Amino acid sequence: MVTLTYKNRTTLLQDGQSVLDTLLERGEPIPHACKQGICQSCVLKATEGEVPTAAQVGLKTTQKAQNYFLSCLCKPTQDLTLLDCDDLGMKATAYVVATKQLTPSIYAVWLEIEGDFTYKAGQYINLTRPCDQLTRSYSIAGVQTSSPAKIELHIKVFEGGEMSNWLSSGLVGISRQISVRGPMGNCFYLPEFKEKNMLLLGYGTGLAPLYGILQDALNQGHKGTIHLYHWGASSDDLYYRNEISALIKEHPNVVYKTGLEVMEERGEKRSSMSKELEQSLSGDACALIKEDLSGLKDWKIFLCGSEAKVNKARRVFYLAGADLSDIYADAFFTWQTAEAIEKVS
After folding, report:
1. Could you tell me the strand order of the sheet in which 254-258 lies?
2. pTM for this structure?
């Protein structure tokens, strides 16, 4: 029988049971969401013992080398000793200080974080609601460097979505206190990108990290060309058009297009677009962008949106000449995705 040691307490694992389920059963508040290895909310680190390779799928090489693993996928065959999850990365307390409805289903939410918390626009953070340990991941859309710092998030509100409805309710201050852990992800701007051309493609609220990356690049005096494309299932998914247009007026090296505008350039007038055509936009993004751009070798490419769309775009742009090491992705997971996986598994 395999034993699990966590916080100096040893527990026997039942055959076929995951590390996450074992710790939850004994009352440990381990952050988690999908239990499918997609959201990576339940990452833990082993200080002793060998972690199964299957429990590290999707993690970076540097994380694997340090014995990080996804506890929801981990069914060890030998004893493991784990680091307290509170000691993983930075943890802080934050408060919702403002909300703004951008479209019928998309909200901007601003968090004020207590103490020191170092992060970059484009990375993502895990938010945990103190009352029930509900955890969700959101990308950082922008950073205000005032003290205390404020983080901007863009949140898609789903029917029945517990966290999205809670964050966007309009209540602020102490009633909307939340725990923050992170930051995570490698989807952010670096100074060495300054001379490179950049392609930013976001689906829906996948615009959030790209909006932060764009601001960061312009603030650092980016010299290459930046092409920002924002796609959506319909026009309701396209937001911040006025804000981005105003931002790039002083920067002629930035090209900004929505999916609707790309279709209009190809002869489809907005007034004659059917709902079916609008809803087909996300599927056509990669092909239409390839027509817009001549070759992607040496470009820095940032892809943000649902996992399926990001994976497709990564493949298409790689085949179009981009180097995989130049493609940075932030694939979104939603609770609805987990429920769909669970129904067919």
Report:
1. 254-258, 226-231, 198-203, 300-306, 327-332
2. 0.72
CA atoms of 54 and 70, how far apart (whole Å): 9
- Alpha-carbon torsion angle 279, 283, 286, 287, nearest 10: -90
Residue 260, judged by CB atoms within 10 A of its CB (0-12, 13-18, 19+), counts as buried
CA distances from 33 to 140, 215, 337 (A): 19, 30, 11
Checking 99-105 for CB contacts under 8 A at 24+ apart, the result is 99/167, 99/168, 99/169, 99/170, 99/172, 101/168, 102/154, 102/239, 102/240, 103/236, 103/237, 103/238, 103/239, 104/236, 105/156, 105/157, 105/158, 105/236
The amino acid sitting at 234 is S
**Burial of 87 from C-beta contacts in 10 A (0-12 / 13-18 / 19+):** exposed
Over residues 151-178, the pLDDT tens digits come to 999 999 988 889 999 999 988 888 899 9
Q: Which residues contact 87 (CB under 8 A, 6 or more apart)?
A: none
The confidence band for 62, taking pLDDT boundaries of 50, 70 and 90, is low
Residue 126 has pLDDT above 70, yes or no: yes
**Pairing outcome for strands 226-231 and 3-6:** unpaired
What is the C-alpha to C-alpha distance for residues 337 and 332, in angstroms, rounded to an integer? Answer: 10
pLDDT surpassing 90 at residue 223: yes
CA angle, 296 as apex, 138 and 301 as ends, to 5°?
15
Neighbours of 268 (CB within 10 A): 15
Distance CA 212, CA 257 (A): 17
**15 with 159: CB under 8 angstroms?**
no
198, amino acid identity: M
CA geometry: angle 292, 197, 186, nearest 5 deg: 110
Alpha carbons 343 and 339: distance in angstroms, whole number:
6
Instruction: Respond yes or no on whether the N-terminal peptide bond of residue 31 is cis (omega within 30° of 0).
Output: no
Q: Which domains does the chain have, with CATH numbers?
A: 3-87 (3.10.20.30), 90-184 (2.40.30.10), 191-338 (3.40.50.80)
CB-based contacts of 291, cutoff 8 Å, min separation 6? none
In whole angstroms, how far apart are CA 23 and each of 6, 9, 112, 135, 308? Answer: 8, 11, 31, 16, 31
